[in-house]
Design goal:
This protein is mainly α and 221 residues long. The protein has a domain at 34-177: Leucine-rich Repeat Variant. Helices cover 55% and strands 3% of the residues. The chain has helices spanning 2-20, 24-28, 34-39, 54-67, 70-76, 82-94, 101-110, 114-127, 131-137, 143-155, 162-171, 203-206, and strands at 192-194, 200-202. The chain has a two-stranded antiparallel ribbon with strand order 1-2. A hairpin with a 5-residue loop joins β1 (192-194) and β2 (200-202). α8 runs parallel beside α10 (143-155) and α9 packs antiparallel against α10 (143-155). It is globular. The chain starts with a helix and ends in a 15-residue tail after the last helix. The relative contact order is 0.09.
Length: 221
C-alpha cells in the first residue's frame, strides 16, 4: 500500500509540473535571425526611405556580417526580395565564403536587378574567384555594374585580403547613439580608421594641418 501511495504522489507531481510548464511551441520559438529581421524591415532601403530607418538598416548590416550563419545567407541568395539577395551577396563576399562562388557568379550573369548584380560581382572580388564572371560583368547592360566590375577586376591581382580588412572593420561594431553625429556646418566628429595599407588614421591628428578630402562610398541595401 505504501508503494502505491508513493507512486501516486510521484505521478501527481509530474502532472502538476506539466500544467505550469509552457507549451512545446513556446520552447521551440527562437529569436528572429538578423537576415529574417532585414527581410521584414519597416523601412527597406528604397529611395523614398533614404532618411527613414537607416539606423536600423546599418545596425542590421553589422549583425548580418558579424553573426548571420552562412547557410541562411546562401539560401537568401534566392530570396524573392532583391534587397535581401543583395545583402546576402555582400555578406557572403565579406565572410569569404568560397562555397557560394558559383551562386554569386550566377547572380552576376542572370539576376534581373542591377543592384544585386553589383553586390554579387563585388563579392566575387572579395573572394578573388570567378574572373570569367567579372569579365562578363564589364559588358553588363547597366553602367553601374560595368563600373563595379572594372574596379573589382583590380582586386584579383592584389595581395591584400580586402575581405579580411572589411571583416575587421565590422567586428569592432557600431554604436547606435553615434550614428548621424556628423552635421553639416559643424566640426567633424573625431574618428579612427584603418587605411588599406594597414595604417591607423585619426582625424584629430591631421585636422588643421593639411587639406583633407574624405569620400564615403555608402552602401545601404
Amino acid at each position: 500500500m505504501k508503494t502505491v501511495t508513493v507512486r501516486l504522489r510521484a505521478l501527481a507531481f509530474v502532472w502538476a509540473s506539466l500544467l505550469v510548464l509552457p507549451p512545446p511551441t513556446v520552447w521551440s520559438q527562437q529569436p528572429a535571425s538578423p537576415m529574417e529581421r532585414y527581410r521584414k524591415l519597416e523601412f527597406p532601403p528604397t529611395e523614398e526611405n533614404f532618411d527613414k530607418g537607416w539606423q536600423d538598416r546599418v545596425t542590421l548590416e553589422y549583425e548580418i556580417i558579424n553573426f548571420a550563419d552562412l547557410a541562411s545567407l546562401r539560401i537568401a541568395l534566392k530570396d524573392e526580395n532583391a534587397f535581401v539577395r543583395s545583402m546576402a551577396a555582400r555578406a557572403l563576399g565579406i565572410r569569404a565564403d568560397k562555397d557560394s562562388a558559383d551562386a554569386l557568379a550566377e547572380l552576376v550573369q542572370a539576376d534581373p536587378e542591377y543592384m544585386v548584380r553589383i553586390r554579387a560581382v563585388e563579392a566575387l572580388g572579395y573572394l578573388k574567384m570567378k574572373p570569367e564572371a567579372i569579365e562578363l560583368a564589364k559588358k553588363d547592360r547597366q553602367l553601374g555594374v560595368q563600373w563595379a566590375a572594372k574596379i573589382v577586376a583590380g582586386l584579383l591581382t592584389s595581395d591584400i585580403d580586402y575581405a579580411a580588412e572589411v571583416r575587421q572593420a565590422f567586428a569592432s561594431g557600431i554604436k547606435r547613439e553615434v550614428m548621424g553625429a556628423a552635421k553639416v556646418g559643424e566640426r567633424a566628429p573625431d574618428f579612427t580608421v584603418q587605411t588599406l595599407e594597414g595604417k591607423s588614421f585619426k582625424l584629430s591628428e591631421v585636422l588643421g594641418k593639411q587639406p583633407i578630402a574624405i569620400y564615403f562610398a555608402v552602401f545601404d541595401g
